[in-house]
Amino acid sequence: MNQKIAQLLKENNLDALLVSGAANMRYFGGFTGEGYVVFTKKGQYVLTDSRYTVAAEEESPDFTVIEVHKPYPEELAVLFAEGDKVGFESEKTLFADYAKNRDGIPGIEFIPIEGELDVLRRIKEQWEIDRIAKAEEIGDLAFNEVLGFLKPGLTELQVAAFLEYQMKNFGAEDLSFNTIAAAGLNSAKPHAVPGEYRLKEGDFLTMDYGALYKGYHSDMTRTVVIGKASEEQKKIYNIVLEAQLAGVDALRAGLRGCDVDAISRGIITKAGYGDNFGHGLGHCVGLEIHESPRLSPKDETILLPNMVITVEPGIYIKGFGGVRIEDTLVVKENGSVNLAHSPKELIEIG
Known about the structure:
Layout: H1 3-11, E1 16-19, H2 22-29, E2 36-40, E3 44-48, H3 53-59, E4 64-67, H4 73-77, E5 85-88, H5 95-104, E6 109-112, H6 116-119, H7 126-147, H8 156-169, E7 174-175, E8 180-183, E9 204-209, E10 211-213, E11 216-217, E12 220-226, H9 231-250, H10 257-270, E13 282-284, E14 291-295, E15 308-311, E16 314-317, E17 321-324, E18 327-332, E19 335-338, E20 348-349
Parallel strand pairs: 1-5, 3-4, 5-6, 12-20
Antiparallel strand pairs: 1-2, 2-3, 7-10, 8-9, 9-12, 10-11, 13-14, 15-18, 16-17, 18-19
C-alpha cells in the first residue's frame, strides 16, 4: 500500500479509504477512468464498469480490478467488514452518492476526510514538475505562434481556436481549461468567454490558456495591445507588470500565501487601483488546474519547496479594459523557478 495512504488511515483510525476524485484516483492508483479506487487492510482495488476495465488493468497493475455495474453499493460491500470505518472524499462526493453508499452498505461507518488527500499532493516530485514544465513549454510555443497570427478583424473565438490548435500541435493531450481570449472592453472580465467580437486597433487582448501534458496542467496569461497602445493603457499595463514581477521576486518557501499576495496587491493599491483587483494573486497547479494553497488575502498556509503556483495580478476597469499577466513557478527555499519564458514587456501588435 502507498505509504502516504497507510499513514492517513492510521492517523484517522480508518479501516479503508474510498477514493473518488479524478486527480486522487490517478495520483494514488494510476487510474484515469470513472469509478473508485479503494484501499483496505486486505488489499487495493479499482472498481469500474466495462468501459474502463482494460485500461484499469494497464494503468493500475498493482491493484485488483473489479468490474461493477451501477449502483455500486452491492459491489463495494464485499470489500468491507461489519463495523469498518471507511474514509471518503467529502469535498468531491455528491450527497446522492454518499447517501446511496451509506444506506446500501449497512454496518459500515463512512467518515469524511475532506481535503486530506489533496494535501498529500501539494509537494510535487521532480517527475511531476517536469511534466508541468513541459506543459508550460507548450504554452510558450503557442504564444510565440499567436503573435504572428494576431491582426484586426479576427474574432476572439478565432484567437482561442488558434491557441488551442497550436497547443495540441506542440504535444498537448488536452487543454487545461477553456481558453480565454478577451479583447476590448471584454478584457475587463477576468473570466470572459470568447465570442464573436472582432479585434480592432487600440484593443487590449488578454489570453489566458494552458496545456495538459501527461495529466498535468500549465497556466499562463499574457495581455497585448492590437496596434499602438495609449498612454493610459501603458500606465495600467506597467502597474500590473510591476506587481507581477514583485510577486515573482518575493515568492519563496516559508512565506504565507497572504504574504506574497499582499506584496503584489500593495503595488496595485498604492497606484489607486486596489478596487480593480478582485481575485487572489495565484493558485497551485498540478493534476488539477486549481489546487491549494493559494496566494490570496485569506490563505495563511506556509509555502513549501516544490509547490507549483501561479502569480497572476490584474487590473480590470469597466468601460476601459483590463490587463492580467501570469506565470507558473516552482517554490524553492530561497526563491522560485519560473517555468514560463514568454516575454512580459508590453507587446503592440502591428
